Amino acid sequence: MKKKWNDRYSDNTFRPRVNPWVERFYELAKPGRALDIACGVGQNSLFLAKEGFLVDAVDISDVALSQIEDKNITKYCVDVERFLFLKERYELIICTNFLQRALFPKIIHSLKPEGVVIYETFTYKKEGFNPKFLLQKNELLKAFDELEVIYYEAGEKALMTAKKV
């Protein structure tokens, strides 16, 4: 798996833009610590660091992580399933274009009270993808039902912003 992602990120001209949902909703979180799950080349991590967050950026690709440089970002080159999700550590957790269902309870566990999660990934309506990596109808809502949903939208992608109350 690591080789696949390292190959993808070896062309360091690839720099996606900051996720628009992160830009739109990050201010709902109190300033503090943020976690960027499967951060890739860190466009969202860099944005959050610029906005004053101390960011933990997690990705399996050391090639991708090598493209991130900011004193407010701590990089973790590890499969996210092996990342240690500490209890109530983060004011903000983001996960975009990545689905690992086993992480859902870990995300909730790592959110501080009043912490915000921004989650966006593909749904069952997206054609040509392995169904294992696609959300089912209302899956995010069910997985995070103990949180207060602030915003939810679903089509080919599902976006959810929720707060731990």
Notes on the structure:
This protein is an alpha/beta fold and 165 residues long. The chain has helices at 2-9, 20-25, 43-50, 62-65, 104-110, 139-143; strands spanning 33-37, 54-59, 73-77, 90-96, 111-122, 148-154, 157-163. It has a seven-stranded mixed beta sheet with strand order 3-2-1-4-5-7-6. It is globular.
The low-confidence parts are none
Evaluate the radius of gyration. Answer: 15 Å
Coarse shape: globular
Order of strands side by side in the largest beta sheet?
Answer: 3-2-1-4-5-7-6
| N-to-C SSE string, H for helix and E for strand | HHEHEHEEHEHEE
N- to C-terminal distance: 36 Å
Which whole number gives the mean pLDDT? 93
Distinct helical segment count: 6
Oligomer, anyone? single chain
Compute the number of strand runs. 7
Structural class: alpha/beta
Strand content: 25-35%
The largest sheet is: 7 strands, mixed
Topology:
Blueprint: H1 2-9, H2 20-25, E1 33-37, H3 43-50, E2 54-59, H4 62-65, E3 73-77, E4 90-96, H5 104-110, E5 111-122, H6 139-143, E6 148-154, E7 157-163
Parallel strand pairs: 1-2, 1-4, 2-3, 4-5
Antiparallel strand pairs: 5-7, 6-7
Properties at a glance:
seven-stranded mixed β-sheet, 165 residues, alpha/beta, single chain
Summarize the structure.
This protein has 165 residues and is an alpha/beta fold. The chain has helices spanning 2-9, 20-25, 43-50, 62-65, 104-110, 139-143; strands at residues 33-37, 54-59, 73-77, 90-96, 111-122, 148-154, 157-163. Strand 4, helix 5 and strand 5 (111-122) form a beta-alpha-beta unit.
